[in-house]
Amino acid sequence: MGKLTTHVLDTAHGCPGKGIALRLYRCGKKETLLVKAKTNADGRCDAPLLAGKDLKAGKYRLEFDVAAYFKSKSVKLAKTPFLDVIVINFGIADAEAHYHVPLLVSPYGYSTYRGS
Questions:
Q1: pTM exceeding the 0.85 threshold for the entire prediction
Q2: ∠99-100-105 over CA atoms, to 5°?
Q3: What structural domains and CATH numbers belong to the chain?
């Protein structure tokens, strides 16, 4: 059974990204909001974002509200933060596979990859 998961690591503070609001969209001719969630104390969501028959091959987008997170940690950001909402566009080719999309983030940089 395929599933889609994510998790956030705060590389500036060396800890999980707790309480980060995120949204998952299915993209195509019509964009559809599928999930709104917040990361837990471990920087993960409590359940897969999609699993089983809900996970379909196609294009997706994850949005992470990182400026709000860093402000909540008392990080002094510019009035217009360098990173506000991080958008990750990605594809699912095999709906039977596990796709894990980690986000490693600081106020001025981020990276992502397909994890396991």
A1: yes
A2: 145
A3: 3-112 (2.60.40.180)
Per-residue pLDDT of the chain (116 residues; tens, 9 = 90+): 899 999 999 999 999 999 999 999 999 999 999 999 999 999 999 999 999 999 999 999 999 999 999 999 999 999 999 999 999 999 999 999 999 999 999 999 999 999 98
